[in-house]
Design goal:
Length: about 150
Amino acid sequence: MHAERLLAWLVEDLTWGAMLFLFVATFAGSLLVVGLLLVTLPPTYFQNDHPRDFWPNRHPVLRLAGQIVKNLAGFVLLVVGIILALPGVPGQGILTVLIGVMLLEFPGKRRLERAIVGRPHILTTINRLRQRFRKPPLILDRSPHPA
């Protein structure tokens, strides 16, 4: 009887420990990926005249294949992020959704990105992070309506 209770207690604690580990690992991984993306963005990324072509100097077939893979990865991350955002599921859903959105191509994406990054607190935080890695601050257009 005691062995069964001990085994049940161990399994329950290991399950909670594994969930906690998964939560911390996905949180740290999400922060690392988002931080890396924000630091490596060109400073003019959010300006109207910044080129948006994906792999512009590649062969058209390779470029199309790259766009398909990028959008599939974005879609997968978006779905996983939505699942992780559900109550009781360990992980960083919102950060995963944001990474997925950055990879996807859809109408209005630039406007959405600028609306998020254009908030003074968010822009200040991003530029502080970029400064730590000796990267120039992001430069935003003054116009609220992107081309």
